[in-house]
Amino acid sequence: MRTPQPPNPPRPPGGTPPRGPTPPRGPTPPPRGPTPPRGPTAPKAGPPPRPTAKPVAAKPRAARKLPAWLARARRLLLQPTQEWAAIAPEFASAGPIYMRYIVPMAAIGPLAATIGGIVFGERGSLLTFGTVPINPGTAVQAGVLEYVLNLVAVYGLAMAIELIAGSIGGQKNRVQALKVAAYASTPFWLAGVFALFPRIEPLGMLLGLYSIRLFAQGLPAVMKAPRDKTAAFTLLTSIAAALIVLVITAVITRLVVA
Prior knowledge:
Elements: H1 68-78, H2 80-87, H3 94-106, H4 108-120, E1 122-125, E2 130-133, H5 136-167, H6 174-184, H7 186-190, H8 204-208, H9 210-223, H10 230-257
Antiparallel strand pairs: 1-2
Helix pairs in contact: 1-2, 2-9, 3-5, 3-6, 4-5, 5-6, 5-10, 6-9, 9-10
């Protein structure tokens, strides 16, 4: 037998039955204050900056050194006393003195005279203190002959210095005498550059006279000549050098004039 169901409760008019009371919620959070303005955005971290390269300072160029023979010539002109003191004890022989000093120095005058003769058609002469006409072929021949005579003459002057030194009580040594003949002739050889301009070539001999002073300083230091005879030694050596120059000039002038 079925059990009778209880009757449904009557619905209120209007539809949905009222709900029960809503449970109270927790405390409401306080209202937020105004949002502070944001500052500039920090840049993103990137790779560390490269160190700034320092500019490399330009290295000063080293001054070009003069050739050894020209540097010695300069010291002989500017510091003769110190240079003779260095020359006197140097161990040397005739060959190195020729190759390292005499060969280039003796070429200055002949080379200048050859160029001057080709360009101007004349050559200076110490015998006349003027000029003589010359053609290019003869100018080259005269230049070669003068150069050879210069190489021979310096050895002849060394023999004369050695002979004079022995007669006055100085050192009789051919190599030491060659040192004096070669190095004391420096002003005379440098004066040869005036031959580039034949009309003023005789004026170059004024510079060549400085060789007398170099003889006066070099003879006692190198040849160990007595101090009280230095003047006589210098005079005799200067006369020997002058005679050799006149002989060379006469030979060259005869070749040119012929």
